[in-house]
Amino acid sequence: MRVARGARGYTFIELIVVSAIVMVLASAIMPLARVTARRQREAELRRALREIRTAIDKYKDAADAQQIASLEIKVGSEGYPADLQVLVDGVSVQNDATGRKLKFLRRIPVDPMTNSTDWGKRSYQDAPDATRWGGQNVFDVYTTFDGTALDGTKYRDW
To answer: Does some domain include residue 105?
Structure first.
């Protein structure tokens, strides 16, 4: 039985060459995909840090403008929140009998590097080079992930 000339299949050599080309292309795309995913997590980290820091600033502004009931502000806190949960739970408004609360965050954002809501915190009273939170208030936040960003900086320094 003879096979028609146009009905022949691929040779083994042709299949190996095509496989090699596909493997080379895949090996070039994988590092690019990893960098893209890392860049996306870094952008999400910047957004989460900005969201928390903006909420802390709004709390401080409200405390300075005496919009927060004096019972809500901890003595020695310099007008900063006691912890991040205060930003979510809200604080009572000064001279408001309705029980209305000022809330600054809907929820504590998830740290995309650690996949948790545990952020490193800095207190206003902490030394600039302190590695542990003093616990008096929350002046700033940072990620607890100990890695280096694509631009060469430490994530903790953002």
So the answer is: yes
